[in-house]
């Protein structure tokens, strides 16, 4: 158990629907990251927060994607008007600021768009 | 910029024989390097990490990796494969300057033959 929890674990949605995922990081970690992993690939960085501030967004994060971390604790990732290409595992990770600590990953949310 | 290259997409070994999974890194900074394992439909589990201390790093489940700066390599080894080692393995790097965004390789799928 890494301490990072994600909900739901699985989501099946119809194309065009909106979906929202939640990530609860380890409580003392103030950095939170979202990654996307498609079949047969390594995880790819999407975005990262330090406390409530979203400090970087990947070009992979189209305008249909939005992430928030309103109180600097949990985070949500919303995908609007889902497309079949959005089908992937969405992983959340958290770390402490500074030092050389590793990122702890949640078990991910597997999204299937049909 | 940082990147990692996993030289083999698939590795097959017999149970009880040594495992070698290869990884080369490229980084403008002194990197932190990691190996993660991912079992089917599971999140990422950290096996071991290198953060500029000892160049030979021991991890969980009998795995170890050696950081070789001259070869820009961080290969993962295990003396004797077990059936439960069958999984996908990801090499990853992070900027050790404090920003812990992790860049992953494309993964190596390890098959263990009984």
Describe the structure.
The complex is a heterodimer of chains A (114) and B (114). With 114 residues, chain A is mainly β. Chain A has strands at 5-7, 10-13, 19-24, 31-37, 44-50, 53-57, 65-68, 75-79, 88-95, 104-105, 109-113. In chain A, the strands form 2 sheets. In chain A, strands 2, 4, 5, 6, 9, 10 and 11 form a 7-stranded mixed beta sheet that branches. In chain A, strands 1-3-8-7 form a 4-stranded antiparallel beta sheet, with no helix packed on it. In chain A, a hairpin with a 2-residue loop joins strand 5 (44-50) and strand 6. The model of chain A has no long low-confidence stretch (mean pLDDT 91). Chain B is mainly β and 114 residues long. In chain B, 0% of the residues lie in helices and 57% in strands. Chain B has no helices and 12 strands. Chain B has strands at 2-6, 10-14, 19-21, 23-27, 31-38, 44-50, 56-58, 64-68, 73-78, 87-95, 102-104, 108-113. In chain B, the strands form 3 sheets. In chain B, strands 2, 5, 6, 10, 11 and 12 form a 6-stranded mixed beta sheet that branches. Chain B has a 4-stranded antiparallel beta sheet with strand order 3-9-8-7, with no helix packed on it. In chain B, strand 5 (31-38) and strand 6 form a beta hairpin. Chain B is globular, with a radius of gyration of 13 Å. The A-B interface holds A 2, 31, 33, 40-45, 48, 56, 91, 93, 95, 97-108, 110 and B 32, 34, 36, 41-46, 49, 51-52, 90, 92, 94, 96, 98, 100-107.
């Amino acid at each position: 158990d890494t301490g990072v929890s994600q909900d739901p674990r699985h989501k099946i949605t119809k194309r065009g629907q909106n979906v929202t995922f939640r990530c609860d990081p380890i409580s003392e970690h103030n950095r939170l990251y979202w990654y996307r992993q498609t079949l047969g690939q390594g995880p790819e960085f999407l975005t990262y927060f330090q406390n409530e501030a979203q400090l970087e967004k990947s070009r992979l994060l189209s305008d249909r994607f939005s992430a928030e971390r309103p109180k600097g604790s949990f985070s949500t990732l919303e995908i609007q008007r889902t497309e079949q290409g959005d089908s992937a595992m969405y992983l959340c990770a958290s770390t402490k600021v500074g030092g050389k600590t590793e990122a702890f990953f949640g078990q991910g949310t597997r999204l299937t768009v049909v | 910029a940082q990147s990692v290259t996993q030289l083999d997409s698939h590795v097959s070994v017999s149970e009880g024989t040594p495992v070698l999974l290869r990884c080369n890194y490229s980084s403008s900074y002194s990197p932190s390097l990691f190996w993660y394992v991912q079992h089917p439909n599971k999140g990422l589990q950290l096996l071991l990490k290198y953060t500029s201390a000892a160049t030979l790093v021991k991890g969980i489940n009998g795995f170890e990796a050696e950081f070789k700066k001259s070869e820009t390599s961080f290969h993962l080894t295990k003396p004797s494969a077990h059936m439960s080692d069958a999984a996908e393995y990801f090499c990853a790097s992070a900027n050790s300057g404090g920003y812990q965004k992790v860049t992953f390789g494309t993964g190596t799928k390890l098959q263990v033959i009984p």
